[in-house]
Amino acid sequence: MIRKEFIATLSHAAFASSLFLSQSNAQDKNYTLNFILSSAMYGDMNLADVLKEVTKIGSRDVDLWPKAHANHREQANEMGMDAFKTLIKENQVNLKCMTCYNLGPFNLQKEMEYAQNITGSGVIFVCGARGPKNLSPGNEMKLEIKKFIELLKPQIESATQLGMFIAIENHDHSLIHTKDSMLWFAEMAQQHDCLGIAFAPHHLQTAGLNATDMGNLIRQLDHKVSFFYAQQYGIGSKQVTPKEVELLQMPGRGDLDFTPLIAALKHIQYHGPVSIFMHPTPRGKPILASIAEVTAEINLARTYLLNCLDKVS
Fold first, then answer.
1. Which residues are 64's β-sheet partners?
2. Which of 305, 249, 253, 256 is nearest to 59 (CA)?
3. Which 3-state string (H, E, C) describes 154-221?
4. For the packed helices 153-162 and 109-119, what is the interaxial angle rounded to 10 degrees?
5. Residue in 29, 28, 46, 63 with CA at minimum distance from that of residue 298
6. What is the distance between the alpha carbons of residues 156 and 11, in angstroms, rounded to a whole number?
7. pLDDT of residue 27
8. In this structure, how many other beta carbons lie within 10 angstroms of the beta carbon of residue 241?
9. How confident is the model at residue 134 (pLDDT cuts 50, 70, 90)?
């Protein structure tokens, strides 16, 4: 290569590199968290009132929960599809997620059709895995995860046809729980664009992972993170405790530093839902006595998470 061509090549490479860096910097500068309101936080409160709270937490998206964690899916049924669609439209809210632990991963088709009638496409269905629990890393775990995905094929086909998504939570004491099982699941799910993981830090804490470990895991899972629970482990999720103890599950209240997790979400340019979440004990009741108090508690956690984002910006 003669000197003039060599210099031109270097100039082109430098321009391409500077363009990439400027685009990356613009992405970093504009990156934000896309919050979603979990109706489960409001327990059995009136659905029409809950939908009014969505915009108050800086969101347009709602995650509709059924019993036993809430009864808003049942309330939507009682009012009828047309009335629910009107309510969604009046509040300028998107039905972005439907949590379906009650149905499990193999019975989602009818709910997908329901969601399509309400909002079109793009709805995420969160549920747990099915299969042997608490397996040790090894061939048996790999084979069971492969079997689980094979059994999911009818749901995957429906999701693909309807433009929906399935997110499997890394739930405590399930087939998909540990770091290894999540990584193998993500690898085997690569061929299915509609299939990913609902990343739950509170369950990973019980598996022995710290905040740095979880941040690294998010980076490894990359685009297979389809939903993110902003919740940390607290004993109040399992037994009746004073309210101040129960609330330690909320981001910013307990010991878990969410900064490494938020940094990892930013690194992979995660734009999916971020659900500020906790479990009251017993299930099905609001996390606090009034709807205003629940929303204020969510916003307190949202401020904390945005401060974490500021630290890594």
1. 98
2. 305
3. HHHHHHHHHCCEEEEECCCCCCCCCHHHHHHHHHHCCCCCCEEEEECHHHHHHCCCCHHHHHHHHHHH
4. 10
5. 63
6. 47
7. 55
8. 15
9. confident
Tell whether the model's pLDDT for residue 9 goes beyond 90: no
- The rounded distance, in Å, linking the Cα atoms of 132 and 114 is 30
- Mean pLDDT (the chain) is 92
Q: What are phi and psi of 72, to 5 degrees?
A: -80, -30
Residue 19: per-residue pLDDT: 40
In whole angstroms, what is the distance from residue 291 CA to residue 14 CA?
55
* Token reading at 118: 């309400």
CA–CA dist 166, 160 (Å, integer) = 10
Q: Which of 179, 185, 309, 202 is nearest to 250 (CA)?
A: 202
Closest among 251, 299, 226, 265 to 54, alpha carbons compared? 299
pLDDT tens per residue across span 34-80 = 999 999 999 999 999 999 999 999 999 999 999 999 999 999 999 99
Residue type, 156: I
- Tell me the domains of the chain and their CATH numbers: 28-312 (3.20.20.150)
Quote the pLDDT of residue 204.
97
pLDDT tens per residue, range 162-180? 999 999 999 999 999 999 9
Cα-based distances in Å from 240 to 172, 235, 256, 302: 19, 9, 21, 25
Identity of the residue numbered 301: A
> For residue 68, how far is the Cα from the chain centroid?
19
- Please classify residue 169 by burial: count the beta carbons closer than 10 Å to its beta carbon, then call 0-12 exposed, 13-18 middle and 19+ buried: buried
Q: Label the pairing between strands 61-64 and 94-99.
A: parallel
